[in-house]
Design a protein that fits this description.
The complex is a heterotrimer of chains A (278), B (334) and C (608). With 334 residues, chain B is mostly helical. Chain B is 72% helix and 0% strand. Chain B has helices spanning 3-26, 35-45, 55-64, 71-83, 98-132, 143-152, 155-169, 189-226, 229-236, 241-279, 284-293, 297-325. In chain B, 49% of the residues are buried. In chain C, the strands form six sheets. In chain C, strands 11, 12, 13, 17, 18, 19 and 20 form a seven-stranded mixed sheet that branches. In chain C, helix 3 packs across helix 4 (159-165) and helix 10 packs antiparallel against helix 14 (398-407). Classes of the chains: A mainly alpha (278), B mainly alpha (334), C alpha+beta (608). Chains in contact: A-B, A-C, B-C.
């Protein structure tokens, strides 16, 4: 397994990119003073200079500080939604796949129905109805529509694992269903759950940036989407204040490319057939 | 295709509709905000400042729009309206009809979305297949990282970057809306060109964002297909490269891609909504955004219902058609 | 894992390519269908050249499509938008027009009006020769019909206002009538018939409206010539994309010589779309007037197209006032702000100039009393400078904040915030969506001075904001205060106790008067002002103004921050002659009725 990971260039490269972004955000936050990311820290809309490496925005914030502080908030939303979504999805997927029968049919039905709903649209409508969403609140709301894919993936894996030899043996040996789940299923599910997790986190970050960029996200904490919102509000595009709206976009792209590569890499580990390809 | 399969798919569709209607009913009521009062406050905020108190006006329209009855009664009335396809009267546009507005906006979204998705699917799949084929030139291999990067970028961010580059820095394309304002919408050649010109950037945002997904997926499928025994058989038969490529490899690899299309439909719809907002493209997504900004609950409900219904219907059709394309499905248990 | 079985597929590629090709062609056609399904009008409007056409954008940024093009009723639900967007410059004219910049009242459909000494009636003389677009004469009967219709139909907009004030209208002859009021009101005619910026009461033709249900009547039938008005344009086409008005060459004013026919043969109205759209289209010469831009965006647009102008000829404040003032509201009756010393401390915490710089790109001016900078008000404000000098409302100073708070019994707690008896002042700074830029800026200024304030945004739904503020449940909030476009009383009256909530938790009577201030001495002043006409040279009026302003400043009833200004843009490529600060014949807002004056003065521009 260790060889597989080291050989898996996609996974390594992807993880490296994501780590870069996380370091930038988390470690950077320790060195950047909050005051610089506040309004009025500098003169408005100044291009990059020695003092302000990425210039200032129209309300005087230091763009670099703002973006450094905004990255952890954005990632946090993704993590909250990812953990809850994958957690709930795994539990429901195992239940559906292993128990079968009515619970399987019900869960499958709910999954199928919810998957046809464009979740961003519902999120946009729901967040616009609420007054003031916090970072945690947003993570929770996104999680509600994030569990279906993990559940589906886990369920189909459970269905195939359930018929394997070693599971039959365990059952014949009188191991309790719960024991089988914990000892036989979960370890084999691990790569799929990991791939699902990364995918869900990516989708959640995507949703949160989209909502914040529309002005529907948390207002009182810096986040990448909020930076984009203010940039659009003050016409940064037409005024060609590139130092304001490009940094959040670049960080988002790097983060997503990294997450994407991680998912592809984890997919290969989960699905060994793909490993033999170029 | 068994009757059971069809029955299940249709059943899921009806459940989707039921869910959509119920969710729709609940969403505006997440707030204790009275839609009519919200609209009145809109007017007030936009400058009708001295028009005094609206309480009487609100009471009258509450009664007209049925908002003073108990919740369960409103729910039943709502179901009745939905079944009659009466999506209600818009508060903004009283006495205009929500249905009319959706019908005005829908062709724009359908046109943009459908063309972009189809183009992305076709180009992406072809590109992906070529990338997997060993006899393709090395120059194509640059596309793999390119496609990966593109597919990772959210649609609307891509839209913003495209607007910046091609409408502002190098002003070659229009940055917003669907046609030049002031022109009458007629079916004339200059008008068609104008519409197409305005559609290039929004379509490009969607295509570039989605193409990676199809391309890389197709490449993976092709690689799997190429490992099959019948491919060796085809080569042994001495068939031409192109024939093997199209009729044997592509043909078989393409079908699971269609499943991928079905799965990603809801996601593409979401992305299209954001693209429309960025570009001010007057489709369903922008209609929803406007309705949210002006607190027009009836339009919000109508759009959400319409979108969920459309996506559900599209998926149903795809699910029913796919087994016809691929007879192997019949022999697989679900 | 099942193995993929072998499939012979000779010619099968066509089974896939052919249908996908067909589908894409069909769907491409679907992309063009909006052109085909666009609602056709009764008769296709004739061709008019671009340089004879005036294209006006709605006040934006905002929508892309016209809201409900099928309804031209100026009084049903949603109508105020219609009147202000399109009808008040084209179809309907008003008894008077008003130049906000100077305070000049311009007689239009009426020649004169007289307020009775007991303030309970207004005698109005109409101009001779005014005709409806169908040739019928415009008379007092139409006015009587309109006002009594509003009085008697509660579901119409402004019905409650008219019901409150108007008893009836007595007609003495086609050119003379008298409006009889229920209670004395010195300013009734001015508010409802002269200013025409926010309130508009178009007079409707009795011969068309009689027998119609005014709440559902769409007032639209192009073949029949509806909507019928007296204005210089008539509606020829209305769709979701735009509304077209062609010049009515039979306009009564041209016939009688009162005015010349406007030069644009056609006026087209359309919505601006998002902020970027509005700017892009103006740069492209797709809009001639109306699009509102942020100051920085305006400068960037002007750099690309020098024909784009706004109100002021020099920056950074390009925009024009709109009689409203950005205001920090304070709850003078309940909560921590009820203590005058705390309010003074808040006042000493705010740096208005910095707020203007950071929130509004330095594009407006700080103000300390709730009067706009319109010319008519200068005469009043000049007589109040000594009060401003003695109270010094614009004096941000942390030392003074400290002394005020200490006097009130507060001290800084361990986190540096003001607290009394270990209870810290922690509150939300309520901010409605359209005033968003001020939120983060004011929050920072207050926090830096020791107030634990968090800005709370209400967007897009502002109703909860109003519910909280109007019930006296908010401590501090951001809002606009409008009303003093020609006299101080306009805003000063809102601090009368009649506007306060009877008890905390109950809504007050007026949306915009939320200070909850209760002071019988102040009430007495306003009661007297109610009953007299405004004039900067009237000794009694000025004396009352000084007394009221003195109390306002002394008690920090609310904090006026800055004047609200908007950068309304004009594109001089096709049409020129627009109003601006050097040619200030009317306010530049396309939503206000006096905009008609610019239509009448336009000359063709240099062209594209």
């Amino acid at each position: 397994m260790g060889h597989a990971i080291a050989d898996n260039r996609m996974l390594v490269a992807g993880t490296a990119l994501v780590l870069c972004v996380l370091l930038f955000g988390v470690v950077g936050s320790m060195f950047v003073s909050r005051a610089r990311a506040d309004v009025g820290a500098g003169r408005p809309s100044r291009p990059p200079s020695f003092e302000y490496l990425l210039g200032t925005d129209q309300q005087g914030r230091d763009v670099l500080a703002n973006v450094v502080l905004g990255t952890p908030a954005t990632v946090k939303i993704g993590l909250i939604a990812g953990v809850i979504g994958v957690g709930a999805g795994t539990v429901l997927g195992v239940l559906a796949g292993y128990a079968g029968g009515v619970s399987d049919a019900t869960i499958r039905l709910v999954i199928d129905v919810l998957l046809t709903i464009p979740n961003l649209m519902v999120l946009v409508v729901v967040t616009s109805m609420l007054t003031g969403v916090s970072v945690e609140g947003m993570g929770l709301i996104i999680a509600v529509l994030a569990w279906m894919w993990p559940a589906r993936t886990v369920r189909s894996q459970v269905l195939s694992i359930r018929e394997r030899m070693y599971v039959q043996v365990a059952r014949l040996n009188g191991v309790s269903p719960f024991g089988i789940v914990v000892r036989e299923l979960l370890p084999n599910l691990a790569p799929f759950v990991a791939a699902s997790f990364v995918g869900t986190v990516a989708a959640a970050i995507l949703a949160s940036i989209g909502l914040s960029a529309l002005g529907l996200g948390p207002q009182n904490e810096a986040s990448l989407g909020l930076t984009i919102y203010w940039a659009i509000f003050y016409g940064a595009l037409i005024r060609q204040l590139w130092w304001w709206f490009l940094p959040p976009i670049v960080i988002t792209v790097v983060l997503f490319v990294g997450l994407f590569m991680m998912t592809a890499g984890l997919d290969r580990i989960a699905n060994p057939r793909l490993r033999t390809t170029v | 295709m068994t009757l059971g399969y069809v029955a299940r798919r249709v059943g899921v569709f009806f459940l989707v509709v039921f869910f959509a209607v119920s969710i729709n009913f609940l969403i505006p009521r997440l707030r204790p905000t009275n839609p009519i009062a919200a609209r009145m406050y809109e007017f007030a905020a936009s400058g009708a400042g001295r028009a005094g108190d609206f309480r009487e006006l609100i009471a009258i329209y509450n009664e007209k729009f049925g908002l003073d009855k108990p919740l369960w009664q409103q729910y039943i009335t709502y179901w009745g309206d939905v079944l009659r396809f009466d999506l209600g009267t818009s508060i903004s546009f009283y006495p205009g009809l929500v249905r009319d507005e959706i019908m005005r906006a829908a062709p724009w979204t359908i046109g943009l979305l459908a063309v972009s998705t189809l183009l992305a699917f076709t180009i992406g799949s072809l590109l992906g297949a070529l990338l997997a084929w060993p006899r393709t030139g090395r120059v194509f291999s640059i596309f793999v990282p390119l496609l990966m990067t593109l597919s990772a970028i959210p649609y609307y961010l891509l839209g913003l970057v495209l607007v910046y580059l091609f409408a502002l820095v190098w002003p070659v394309l229009p940055s917003s809306s669907a046609y030049t304002s002031g022109a009458r919408l007629t079916l004339s050649w200059p008008m068609v060109v104008d519409i197409l010109r305005h559609a290039i950037l929004p379509a490009a945002s969607i295509i570039l964002a989605v193409i990676g997904f199809w391309g890389l997926g197709m490449r993976a499928m092709m690689i799997t297909t190429m490992g099959e025994d019948y491919m060796i058989m085809a080569q042994a038969k001495g068939l031409r490269g192109r024939t093997i490529f199209f009729d044997y490899a592509l043909r078989n690899a393409l079908l699971p891609q269609v499943t991928g299309l079905a799965i990603s439909l809801a996601g593409i719809m979401s992305g299209a909504i954001l693209v429309e907002i960025v570009f001010g493209y007057p489709g369903i997504g922008f209609l929803l955004y406007r309705a949210i900004s002006s607190n027009d609950y009836f339009v919000i409900q109508g759009v959400v219902f319409f979108v969920i219904l459309s996506v559900g219907l599209a998926l149903l059709i795809l699910d029913l058609v796919y087994p016809l394309l691929d007879p192997r499905i019949q022999f697989r248990r679900s | 894992m099942t193995r993929l079985t072998f499939l012979i597929s000779r010619g099968l590629k066509w089974r896939i390519l052919a249908p996908s090709l067909c589908t894409s062609v069909l769907l491409a056609a679907a992309a063009i269908t909006p052109a085909a399904v666009a609602a056709p009008s009764a008769a296709q409007p004739r061709e008019v050249a671009r340089n004879d056409t005036l294209i006006v954008s709605g006040f934006g940024p905002g929508l892309t499509e016209i809201q409900d093009p099928g309804n031209m009723n100026p009084y049903s639900l949603g109508s105020l938008g219609r009147v202000r967007d399109i009808l008040n410059k084209t179809i309907y004219e008003f008894l008077y027009l008003y130049n906000h910049n100077t305070g000049e009242e311009i007689p239009w459909l009426a020649e004169s009006y007289t307020v009775a000494p007991d303030l309970q009636s207004v005698d109005v003389t109409l101009r001779n020769g005014v005709e409806w677009s169908d040739g019928q004469p415009f008379t007092s009967d139409d006015v009587k019909f309109t006002l009594e219709l509003l009085r008697d139909t509660p579901s119409l907009v402004f019905a409650s206002d008219i019901k409150e004030w108007v008893r009836d209208v007595t007609v003495s002859d086609p050119q003379h009538f008298r409006i009889n009021l229920n209670k004395p009101n010195a300013r009734f005619f001015y508010f409802y018939f002269v200013e025409n910026s926010e309130i508009h009461l178009p007079i409707v033709p009795r011969h068309v409206w009689q027998g119609q249900d005014p709440a559902t009547f769409t007032n639209l039938d192009i073949a029949a010539g509806w909507p019928v008005g007296t204005g210089p344009y008539k509606l020829v086409d209305a769709s979701a994309q735009q509304q077209l008005f062609d010049r009515n060459d039979n306009w009564w004013a041209a016939k009688t010589g009162f005015q010349n026919l406007p030069k644009p043969l056609r006026v087209i109205f359309m919505q601006p779309g998002a902020a970027d759209t509005a700017a892009a289209r103006t740069i492209n010469n797709e809009f001639d007037a109306g699009a509102v831009m942020q100051p920085g965006v305006f400068e960037a647009a002007r750099a690309r197209n020098p024909n784009i102008t706004s109100w002021n000829t020099q920056g950074p404040s390009w925009g024009a006032p709109d009689a409203c003032l950005y205001t920090l509201g304070l709850n003078t009756r309940w909560g921590p702000m009820a203590d005058l010393r705390v309010r003074r401390a808040v006042q000493h915490s705010i740096n208005r100039q910095s707020m203007v710089d950071l929130a509004y790109e330095s594009a407006t001016v700080p103000q300390v009393i709730p009067f706009s900078t319109y010319g008519g008000l200068a005469a009043y404000q000049n007589q109040l400078t000594d009060l401003l000098d003695s109270y010094k409302p614009d004096d941000p100073d942390p030392a003074k904040v400290a002394s005020d708070m200490q006097e009130a019994g507060y001290s800084r707690d361990s986190a540096g915030f003001w607290a009394k008896d270990s209870a810290r002042i922690t509150t939300d700074l309520l901010t409605p969506g359209w005033l968003k830029p001020m939120g983060p800026v004011l929050e920072k200024q207050l926090r830096d001075n020791g107030f634990d304030v968090t800005f709370k945004l209400f967007d897009p739904d502002t109703q909860p904001f109003f519910d909280i503020v109007r019930a006296g449940n908010a401590n501090i909030w951001i809002i606009v205060h409008c009303g003093s476009s020609r006299e101080p009383y306009g805003t000063l009256q809102h601090f009368h106790s009649r506007f306060a909530s009877p008890a905390q938790g109950q809504l007050n009577s007026y949306l915009w008067a939320n200070s909850q201030y209760m002071n019988p001495e102040y009430d007495a002043i306003i009661n007297q002002m109610d009953a007299i006409q405004p004039s900067p040279t009237d000794a009694q009026y000025m004396d009352l103004t000084r007394k009221a302003t003195n109390i306002f400043l002394r008690d920090v009833v609310e904090m006026t921050l800055a004047e609200e200004r908007h950068v309304v843009t004009f594109n001089n490529t096709y049409w020129t002659g627009w109003m601006n600060s050097s040619n200030a014949y009317a306010a530049p807002y396309s939503l206000w009725a006096p905009f008609l004056l610019s239509l009448l003065r336009l000359e063709p521009g240099p062209g594209a």
